[in-house]
Design brief:
Layout: E1 12-15, E2 41-45, H1 51-57, H2 59-69, E3 73-78, H3 81-89, E4 95-97, H4 100-109, E5 114-121, E6 128-136, E7 151-154, H5 160-174, H6 178-181, E8 184-187, H7 191-200, E9 205-210, H8 224-230, E10 239-244, E11 248-249, E12 253-256, H9 262-278, H10 280-287, E13 293-296, H11 303-319
Parallel strand pairs: 2-3, 2-4, 7-8, 7-9
Antiparallel strand pairs: 1-3, 4-12, 5-12, 5-13, 6-9, 6-10, 6-11
Helix pairs in contact: 2-9, 3-4, 4-11, 9-10
């Protein structure tokens, strides 16, 4: 089997307290009695920002999950992407929103563990986003050429935009051999930490994810930069964008593939669409930005990314 990059401990580092009222929101969208499957609904999040920030921003999602599934919702954060992936592979999560590479890693490990359910559509109608490389504006770095011989920061080994895509596209499109072109590369514990590493001068530039549409000074319409601007920890005047990838398929919300979850997957699609229409503030909080629609997807939407991740793993094996 193809192994996922392992975390030291695939355990949750933050768990939200259970709500005492499963109907804390006014919800009349699709619903079911999930207790026929499990006594609770387990939601997992990628560890790309502080655990409490994740749980606070997704508090409304917890309320809607409880209203839609009629069971308590448990919210788990993990210290890295691999922890969330391992938990899904182990059958310990009912829902998680992965990047395309994270899903690819799960699929390559066990094709029967989970399936894509839906993804976001950007305000432009695109169902994709971009990996971008940013540097401090006062660094004198204004292009990819300026990064030769300098330190590049990656987000997480299992991140699509924060590692896989730049590590594949830079060699293919720009004849840039990662280990030769940059003096050093490092993983910095997620997207937020990677941009903070840029701001702190720990790396010369770092890659992260953005919608690529909207206003620069707002951090675009969605993505990590937008999230950091909204939190007050990033001023876009302090950074400059020096590279952008091709369009990347938006990552999927995944749920277990088991037939027992068939109805639960249908309810998830309807619930997300209901929230977007009736509670856009919650939808924006959960999605880290503006969403035009939630679109059902299946494995075929991610086959290109699965092939890219598989090829990278095989190339690494040959080089060892």
């Amino acid at each position: 089997m193809i192994n996922i990059v392992k975390s030291a401990l695939a355990v949750a580092v933050g768990i939200a307290a259970l709500s005492t009222n499963a109907f804390a929101v006014n919800y009349d969208g699709p619903s079911m009695d999930f207790s026929t499957v499990r006594p609770d609904f387990r939601v997992g999040f990628l560890g790309d920002e502080a655990a409490q920030d994740i749980l606070t921003r997704n508090a409304c999602l917890k309320d809607y999950v409880e209203a839609a599934y009629n069971v308590p919702a448990k919210m788990f954060t993990f210290k890295d992407y691999a922890g969330t992936m391992e938990s899904m592979l182990g059958g310990n999560l009912d829902y998680a929103w992965f990047g395309a590479s994270g899903y690819a890693g799960i699929y390559l490990e066990d094709p029967n563990a989970a399936v894509p359910v839906l993804t976001r559509m950007q305000p432009t109608g695109d169902t994709g986003y971009y990996s971008v490389m940013v540097a401090r504006k006062d660094s004198g770095i204004s292009s990819l050429e300026d990064m030769k011989g300098k330190h590049l920061g990656f987000a997480d080994p299992n991140s699509t935009s924060g590692y896989l895509i730049p590590s594949v596209e830079l060699p293919e499109l720009y004849d840039v051999k990662i280990d030769d072109y940059f003096s050093k590369t490092s993983f910095n514990g997620g997207h937020e930490n990677n941009v903070l590493a840029v701001l702190n001068g720990d790396v010369d530039a770092g890659v992260t994810w953005v919608s690529g549409v909207g206003e620069w000074d707002e951090g675009y319409t969605s993505g990590n930069l937008r999230k950091m601007v909204d939190k007050g920890i990033l001023n876009m005047d302090d950074i400059t964008q020096i590279w952008s990838s091709k369009l990347i398929p938006n990552g999927p919300i995944v749920m277990p593939k088991d037939d027992a979850y068939a109805k639960a997957r249908e309810v998830m699609v309807g619930m997300k669409q209901w929230i977007l229409k009736n509670d856009p503030k919650c939808s924006e909080d959960v999605a880290n930005g503006i969403v035009k629609a939630w679109v059902p997807v299946d494995h075929s939407f991610y086959e290109v990314v699965v092939k890219a991740r598989k090829a990278k793993i095989e190339a690494k094996k040959k080089s060892n």
